[in-house]
Write a structure and sequence with these properties.
Structural class: alpha/beta
Order of helices and strands: EEEHEHEHEHHEEHEHEH
Helix content: 25-40%
Shape: globular
CATH topology: Rossmann fold
CATH class: Alpha Beta
CATH architecture: 3-Layer(aba) Sandwich
Strand order of the largest sheet: 1-2-4-3-5-6-9-10
Radius of gyration: 18 Å
Number of helices: 8
């Protein structure tokens, strides 16, 4: 594990930056926990960062348990370098692998929120020997294709292909955000739901049934695709996309506790 944030004392939160290729630096915060308990890595959603509600709730949870915890910002997000408009799924996967390889040791529970659920699955496939379990909140694997491209009207698709980018509305950003053709096209190299996902590890999926961004049947597709048998989907009838209410956060941390307690070093 890199000593990039100095000689951290166990349980103390430290932070820093690591290089992740193409001159881009990735910002992170981590705690080093006690031995014998799997670590936790949080992977945030599209245009979110490591200061969000779920990321900070997990930090408090892991600190109270003396459990190792890592959160970070993908390139183009939060405190990390790079431009959001220039990045793709492959870039964000590379960022996730870089922090996993260089800032953690031993078995890890990956917690992925929305797009982070897709990245967590891809990371687990690339590092099967390191990942002991998955907790996926409103998981959005294949979202660039199934939830963006397939929803775009024909004229918007034409504009995106011709101009190379398109501004799309978002309830989370009044100005909307720029969607690049490269994001859509490169995302097709990482699609998962069109075939079995060869991961035989425990997975807990949580999804709100009032999620307008990623409809809950999308998580059911992921459950069906995962090869393992210890896979469970919890639906929250009045839950929205974020699942950041106290009850939603308790479901998430409860799932992390269940999986990490059974995945000691």
């Amino acid at each position: 594990m890199d000593g990039l944030d100095g000689e951290a004392h166990r349980g103390e939160e430290t932070g820093g930056m690591i290089a992740a290729g193409e001159g881009v630096s990735i910002a992170y915060r981590r705690r080093i926990g006690k031995p014998g308990l799997a670590g936790v890595v949080f992977m945030g959603g599209f245009r979110s960062d490591m200061t969000g509600t779920k990321a900070t709730a997990l930090d408090r949870f892991c600190a109270a348990r003396g459990q190792s915890y890592l959160r970070f910002d993908y390139r183009g997000h939060g405190a990390s370098g790079g431009r959001f408009e220039d990045a793709t799924m492959g870039d964000w996967l590379a960022d996730s692998l870089a922090v996993l390889d260089r800032l953690t040791e031993g078995p890890q529970i990956l917690v992925g929120s929305s797009m982070g659920g897709w990245i967590a699955l891809l990371t687990a496939l690339a590092r099967k020997e390191r990942v002991a379990g998955l907790v996926l909140v409103a998981a959005a694997p294949d979202f660039t294709e199934a939830l963006v491209w397939e929803r775009l009207p024909a004229d918007a698709r034409d504009e995106l292909m011709a101009a190379g980018s398109l501004t799309v509305p978002s309830e989370y950003a009044p100005e909307g955000y720029r969607l690049s053709r490269r994001l859509i096209e490169e995302g097709r190299a990482h699609l998962l739901l069109d075939r079995p996902i060869p991961l035989d590890i425990p997975a807990r999926l949580l999804h709100g049934m009032r999620d307008a961004d990623v409809p809950w049947p999308h998580s059911l597709r992921a459950v069906e695709a995962l090869a393992g048998t210890d896979v469970r989907l919890t639906l929250v009838k009045d839950g929205d996309h974020r699942l950041s209410t106290p009850d939603g956060l308790r479901l998430m941390t409860g799932a992390v506790a269940e999986l990490s307690d059974g995945a000691g070093r």
